[in-house]
User: Fold these one by one.
Assistant:
Number 1:
Amino acid sequence: MPAVRTRRPDVAGGDALWDMERSLRRRGFASVAGADEAGRGACAGPLVAAACVLPAGRRGRVPGLADSKLLTAAARDRVHDEVVERAVAWSVVVIPVPELDARGMHVTNLEALRRAVTALDPPADYVLTDGFPVPGLGVPSLAVWKGDRVAACVAAASVLAKVTRDRIMMDLHERFPEYDFAVHKGYTTEAHGAALERHGPCPEHRSRFVNVVRARDAHAVRELQLTGPGGMVDDGGMRTVSGEPR
């Protein structure tokens, strides 16, 4: 089923954010989950998928809830903690780089979202996904265009996924400080591109990305030029020291 366009997709909050879930509950779907991911467009770090069911009524009105991309880091952290505290069920799935490289982004992304929904306990009766359909969920589902801006449960899932991934990237910054993952979180910014050019990729870079492949190859060529084919540093012509065997 194609993604549905809802009215005023730029609205990120207010009473309208809960309209889709209210409508589905009136149709008999008591437990409506949202599913979203973070890191699909990054060239480094894991993919993180999340699913979330918010309670009906006032308790489900998470203060400050909105699409994670529209919130500051501090606001996301606050909303994340509120979602975890209030949710009927929530789950987060982290897909490491080797799995992304082995299976490809789209296939792995769909699988991650399925895993996140399947992990909900209690399970959902209905699932709203952000942007594109996810087959094989086992319950009715609907893809919603800009779902993280118009459906509260999808916005909650987006915050869970984004905060989880950002924290992972902060940890990776400690291991690989030369890439400054703490700032750009592995996305293809100008600063990240410069670090890739300078240092080549690290194990957390995704080998299917063109910029990573280009940086890897360029770095390998530079290393070869510096060391020579035998792996020895070329210090210029060697001279014989008197009295030493040749």
Number 2:
Amino acid sequence: MSPAPRIDVAEDAKDLANRVAAWLVSRIASASKPFALSLSGGSTPKQVYQLLGAEPLRDEVDWRKVELFWGDERFVPFDHENSNFRMTSEALLRHVALAPAQIHRVPTDAESPAQAAALYQRALQNFYGAKTLDPDRPLFDVTLLGLGADGHTASLFPDTRALEERDAWATFIIGATPEPRISLTYPALESSAEIAFLVSGAEKRGILARVLANDRTLPAARLATRGLIHIFADRAALSP
């Protein structure tokens, strides 16, 4: 993982969510242009979204300048119980003033995972205004990521072809999980001014230690970005 991450230590999962939510509010407030935020699935991000969608934080954000994307999604209907979009919608989108054009969901209503990935890439490129990523102009202002027990992040799982994809911005993954997945690739994830990993719980302690030790066999440790990397972790995930 490069550059060396900045580590923020929380007391527990609740404290972690509060820290991340406050950090995001400050980042959005300081942005003078549309703020592109790539979201993650998972229980800890859900707590963050719930905080952002409720008072007092909800009223501290100028939602008119926020553009929302997703780092990965299961190829399931939008209202499926395993949909990251549904989780985000229930936790955040229903509670804030966002126009439909500001919500760039992965099109899982496409005919196939491959088509969904292609359509999502097209949407990303339309937003960015180019088909080639400029190292000096990040696609995202902030990218939120989780860390799986096997070291995966977004839907970049160990031993999948997606790890070697360097041309596409979005790809599909079949076989790593019961449902097909659509995921941003390394080039798209790395094109972010700041990346924040959210890691909570003692069960993540071993894998987080390996990521921090730059174990390149783990997908999460292979991010090579010019932006800043933050790791928001609670003491259970960091304690020796």
Number 3:
Amino acid sequence: MNIVVQVKLEPDATQVSVLESTLYALNKQANKVSEVAFDRDVKRNYDLRKLTYNDLREAGIGSQAAQHIIKKVCDAYVTLKANIKAGNLGTQGSQRRVKAESKPISFRLDSAHPYDARNLSFALEKKTISLWTLEGRMKNIPFTGSEHGLAKLARFKRGECDLMRRDGMWLLAVTVDIPDTERYEPTGFIGVDLGIVNIATASSDPAG
């Protein structure tokens, strides 16, 4: 079972500047990739990668970040297609649906961007992370979170993370894989008799 643990980053002024320029650049490039996907009607990951990966690398985007941009764009178009099919954007010809279908998907400059173990790592004892940025690997970014959430980060396998900025705060949403608990199979039952004098009387005797 996957759950999401959210931690708050506490970067200093220099780190904030780098994170901001990196996240903004990643989303600007995502918008360019989205335009290619829309104009060429190419929305499958492998095919879109052939059209856009080299341009992303030439723009200074790291290999793993470039692949995440392409996947992010493809996932957005899959979600749009599912919403259209489900009727969430109205019937064919409706103003809302026409608007959604007539232009490329766009991303806010502070939209979340995915990271994984190849370009982001945790130092849990120090409560810091290091991650890829446009200026290289940036280390020792402090983070904090609930005691319950941090315990899950330490105990269970961590997956993909989303870096985001919300209301001036830098956040990291971390996917954590928690093993499913063993299903309990009962071996008996308890009967409950509702009454007036005794509101409820329990019995494990099959005969009542």
